Amino acid sequence: MSGTQPTATLWRDVTLFDGHRTHPEPMAVIVEANRIAQVVPMARADDARLAECREMARGGVLTPGLVDCHTHLVFGGSRADEFEQRLEGVSYEEIARRGGGILSTVNATRAASEDELFAAARPRLEALMAEGVTTVEIKSGYGLTVSDELKMLRVARRLGEALPVRVVTTLLGAHALPPEFANDSDGYIRLVCEEMIPAADADGLADAVDVFCEKIAFSVAQCERVFAAAKDHGLPIKAHAEQLSSLGGSAAAARFGALSADHIEYLDEAGVAALRDAGSVAVLLPGAYHTLRETQLPPIDALRRAGVPMAVATDANPGSSPIFDPTLMLNFACTLFRLTPQEALAGMTAHGAQALGLAEQGLGRIQAGAPADLCLWDVDTPAALAYAVQPGRLRQRIFNGALRHD
Ligand SMILES: N=CN[C@@H](CCC(=O)O)C(=O)O
Ligand SMILES: [Zn+2]
Q: For 102-107, what is the mean pLDDT?
């Protein structure tokens, strides 16, 4: 090899969490041409092969790059005033009924230019990246007109072009009823189905379509219309469902083969079975549970028993989860929802990728052939990432094979 630059890079003697489990012995991971080329126990590694590689690090905990599969990080304005109202006892639903909540962010988002939204969202995304995120989903849903929803999605796409992170976009036109349709929610759903989804699809701006199925948002029948329109355009679907009550939105989403049902605090046994049968992911959002001081826990044991994959995400948004810290969510998933640290980590790696339809590409996993999105952490064990709330432990962030944080 003398005189030539090694093309392969090596992380050696690492404690490896591969997206599903922690390996019991020290491991070597070799990356070549943006992909993981080899994952092997140190004891069985070929020394000559290791010597050919450029050594990037020795020791530490290596995990897949984190996948934050549910965020609303493009938005205008702030809802700090509502935070204070909620502390005084006004509920999230009551604030929404008074025209605040999501609609207050809609007003600020409509008033903002694309450049202003981009400038506001960029540091939020950078905060996630600084704590290990390499893939992030970003929803629209604060525009609620065709042009404002497309504006949000364009900002999301631009963020993915400007920063070393994979951005997956989701059209959430059916997030709240805009004031122009105050007495005509079916009319608004018609707009979503007949204009918004076709326009987003025509411009290639949406990777998936989402809804908010709730008393303060849209009924199961309305959400089903949105799912059918998405399917007509070949777009996968997701749902905010069973967050505040049990309407059956998750089961409806499952009937349409949803990638995921998200929140699901009020999911019942039939809903769990529906997710299991459809192969949908249960996305847990402990940040919203914490911020809204909810008391109804998602049915973790039933999901576990049924073998439904559980993802964990920040739900980063200005209202129900103004939290831009993925490792804090690992902690919340354990302390609030009683996930094991391994389950929480799988939730932000392999299962997060599955909730975005990216599992087949190998994202969220450390395995030969997968894209080389990796995080090297200065901790003793993978579980420590969930155990201690301590930003700043990310030693290296590798995006698409290249070091992006050191
Ligand atoms: N539940 C509905 N949508 C968002 C909240 C959006 C907001 O409050 O601005 C969520 O995922 O929690
Ligand atoms: Zn959400």
A: 96
Instruction: Name the DSSP class of 218.
Output: B
Q: Which atom number of ligand 1 is nearest to the Cα of residue 79?
A: 9
Given the DSSP bridges, would you call strands 281-284 and 61-64 parallel, antiparallel or unpaired?
unpaired
The token pair at 83 is: 């935070």
Q: Distance, CA 278 to ligand 1 centroid (Å)?
A: 25
SS3 category, 343:
helix
* 276 close to ligand 1 (CB < 6 Angstrom): no
C-alpha torsion sign, points 74, 75, 77, 80: negative
- Neighbour count for residue 201 (Cβ, 10 Å): 18
Distance CA(396)–CA(128), nearest Å, equals 14
Q: Could you tell me the distance, in angstroms and rounded to a whole number, from the CA of residue 248 to the centre of ligand 1?
A: 18
Q: Is residue 320 lining ligand 1, measured as CB closer than 6 Å?
A: yes
Q: Is the pLDDT of residue 271 over 70?
A: yes
Helix/strand/coil (H/E/C) assignment for every residue in 245-294: CCCCHHHHHHHCCCCEEEECCCCCHHHHHHHHHHCCEEEECHHHHHHCCC
CB 397 within 8 A of CB 76: no
Strands (E), 148-194: 166-174
- Compute, in angstroms, the gap from residue 72 CA to the centroid of ligand 2: 6
Averaged pLDDT for residues 162-178: 98
What's the mean pLDDT in 144-151? 98
**Residues linked to residue 170 through DSSP beta bridges, in sequence order:** 139, 208
**49: burial class by Cβ within 10 Å (0-12, 13-18, 19+)?**
middle
Residues within the annotated binding site for Zn(2+)? 70, 72, 240, 315
- What rounded mean pLDDT belongs to the chain? 97
Please state, in angstroms and rounded to a whole number, the distance separating the CA atoms of residues 61 and 380.
7
User: Binding site membership for 4-imidazolone-5-propanoate: which residues?
Assistant: 79, 142, 175, 243, 320
**Domains observed in the chain:** 8-64+366-403 (2.30.40.10), 66-361 (3.20.20.140)
Indicate the pLDDT class of residue 2, thresholds 50, 70 and 90: very low
C-alpha of residue 101 to centroid of ligand 2, in Å:
13
Determine contact, residues 78/142, Cβ cutoff 8 Å: no
> How many C-beta atoms surround the C-beta of residue 200 within 10 A?
26
Q: How many beta carbons lie within 10 A of that of residue 157, not counting itself?
A: 18
